[in-house]
Write a structure and sequence with these properties.
This protein has about 325 residues and is mainly beta. Helices cover about 10% and strands about 40% of the residues. Strand 9 and strand 10 form a beta hairpin. The longest helix has 23 residues. About 5% of the residues have low confidence.
Amino acid sequence: MKNLILFFSVMLVAMFSVQANADNTESSFGHCYWDSYFVYPKKNQSYSAGKNVYVKVQPKKYQHIAYMELYVNNKYIRKESSYPYEWGKGGDHKLKNMHPGTYKLKCKIKDKCGQVHYIYCTFYVKGGHNGGGGNQDDCTFSNPFHMSWCSPFKNGYKVCQYKKNGKTYFRIVKCGSHTPYWYTCSGKLICKTDNHHEIKNCHKVRCWGDCHDNGHDNVCNWKSWYEYPKYNAINYGKGLYVRVKPANYKHIAYMELYVDGKYIRKESKYPYEWGKNGSDSYLKHLKPGYYKLKCVIKDKCGEKHTIYKSIVIKKHNNS
């Protein structure tokens, strides 16, 4: 009887040990659950100027995360190597006393399988100087359509930025209309005429929109996708051929390809392809395994964008 009890006790301990080891060593088999999301700030959340911003990223399984790194508009903030993954709670001066503008958060996530992933979140800081004198401009943006008040004008309108005495104004006209609407950077409507004293003698900086008035619009269609490889699985020994197809190649300044973070080459003219006919030796000799393609696209409006594709190179099974 004692032997029977001892046997079942050993079996129970073994079962718990196997389960625990499965959780702890899952990453060694290449099964890491890196999926994560921004808890704070929320997508497109707005803050008042001068406020501090608190950032928190929640992973699906923190046990599978090696570390996370936060960037704001591509500026490195700090690495977090333990859960909870948060920034701006007490420290991180770059997240304090935020100035008006559009900000893009990038969180670099490295899982315990050795893979690197990225998630993004955009937020806005509004406000500034109301009334009063001075020529200080508090309008910071990369694209006016990223500002929540201006985003409804993205389609069917022409939006032009103007400057006067160091301040920024926006003149918005519906395509086919002749009535201008003048706004401040914070989205306050000033007038519906070009003769208002506040905006008289403004000088034009640049324009955005889709009215197609003789090519003077300044919006670039950067949208692109991976034309090759068509499938996620590629046979070992054939080499890797990559081709990225833009919706409008005339709007593209260049593209750069990376494989698992390794820089391959810049392509400055269409077609945008790598590894053709055995060129790009690194792509020719990739070993079996999982890889992540990253293509950095710079459009002719000066904006950078990134698209990704995960692939696997499979070894031939001759058995």
